[in-house]
Structure formats: structure tokens, C-alpha cells
Amino acid sequence: MPEMPEVQALVDFLTHRAVGRIVTDVELGSVAVLKTFDPPPDALLGRPVDGAQRHGKFVDLDVDGTHLVFHLARAGWLRWSEAMPTSRIRPGRSPVALRVRLDDGSGFDLTEAGTRKGLAAYLVSEVTQVPGVAALGPDPLAATFTREEFAAILEGRRTQIKGLLRDQKVLAGVGNAYSDEILHAARLSPFALAASLTSVQVDDLYAAMQQTLTQAVDAASGKPAKELKDAKRSGMRVHGRTGEPCPVCADIVREVRFADSTLQYCATCQTKGKPLADRGMSRLLK
Fold first, then answer.
1. pLDDT, position 279
2. Among 2.40.128.20, 3.20.190.10, 1.10.10.10, 1.25.40.10, what is the CATH number of 4-134?
């Protein structure tokens, strides 16, 4: 799933390449991808792209005051083309869910692989009309997001820190992969309870979050969309690296499997050498 760094890179790319261009066509390959009905897609036709922003994991294209907002979910992606195909999308027979054409012949497709569909697009006059955007917590890389605000979020929460970092209503933009990386950098168990963290651990977690996300955003910056997935994978130290040596201590990276996801961690660095139970129960093996 694309997370903050990849989404920010897509926004930067669209700012560079799409802003200033005129939308000439919008095609739907999947009716289900569009979650709103007013305004309709043809409201964008003939209008200029004025800007691009990120809200958590949402991309927001401002098209002359109408916002095309989309969330790529687990298997969605943006595929840019300098010369868009001349053929039309055949609904139900293409992975393309939505296509936007621009006046210089370029444009992009929103695609989604697999059978589980989560890609979502919205056309709204105000970004906060998108429920997921309206519910977002603070952005951890915002200049106004301080260590004190982070500590206030953690205080009193009997919630596992891994889940809290991924909760978009708590913090915007962090998902499964970067939460693994942040916790490894902070040397914290993913099952530690937020309320149980000491002041020093909160300091370490805040610093790890800032550093991990900043470095990932910098690494993704300037890369074309087609290179972002590989760049993300290559930058991971523990996520997706089960069975490989930890780059800090050389212990083997372990994983915990859940119903629809996995997490990776280093026992030596994060859990005092104790393996975590490899099931959906949030406790250490005794």
C-alpha cells in the first residue's frame, strides 16, 4: 500500500507535470471506484489543473475549484503516460479504474490489481467532504506537529503502538510498512502499549518517526511513479525482510502474521530477544 512518502512523491510529480494543463477527458473503467455523484466527471472537462496536495494517503488534484481526490488503498496505483492510449477503456475488462487525459496528450490511469477492490475516487467542491480526509489525524511531518502533541496523543491509550501508528484518525499517512520501520528505529516492540511508554521512549519514538519519514520522503522525491514501489522496498530495513539479517544487530528479522497482513521486527533490537507470538494475539511468548 502506498504510504505518505510515496503519495507525497506522486503529488510532487503531478505538481510538476499536470498542474497548468487542461483536462480534456475523464473515463471510468469501474463505476464503483467513484464514490460521489455530484459533480459528475464531465465537470472537469475543459478546466485547468491548479494544484496537487497530499492529505494523509489521499491525493488531491484541484481542477479549477473542483477536487479530484483519490486513495490508492492496498493494490491501487497511478500510471502516468506522456502519450495516452487512443482507445477507450473497456469497463470490466481492464485494470484501469479511472483515466484522466490532458491537453498535451499526456495523462494518468488509476489502476488496481487483484480481486479485493479498495481504490476510491471522489469529486467534491471541498476536500473535507471526503469522509476519510475529514477524519484524518495530524500529519506527523507537519511543522506544527510537536513532540508534546505526540505525547498527548499517546497518553492514557491502552492501545498497541503498532496499531496506533497505523490509525489514520490518530496520525495521517503512516501504514503497515513505515510503522514497522519506525518501531525498529525506536527499538520498541510493536505490541507495546502506548500508555506504558516512558518519557524517553516517547522521545525516541517521535525522533524515529520524524527521521524515518523524512528520509523516505527525500528518497522518493523526484522519482517517476513507476519507480516508487521498488524504491520503497529497497529502502526497508525490516519490513518485508523476514529471514534476512537485521542491519543493526544481524539477528534474523522475524514476522507476525495476521488475517490480512504481516508485521516484521527484530527481536534483539525491539523485544529484548523474545520472539513475539506468531498469531493475532497481542502478547509475548512466555
1. 60
2. 3.20.190.10
Which residue matches cell numbers 534476512?
244
- The answer to whether domain 147-270 has CATH 3.40.50.700 is no
pLDDT tens for each residue of 139-157: 999 999 999 999 999 999 9
Q: What is the average pLDDT across 35-47?
A: 95
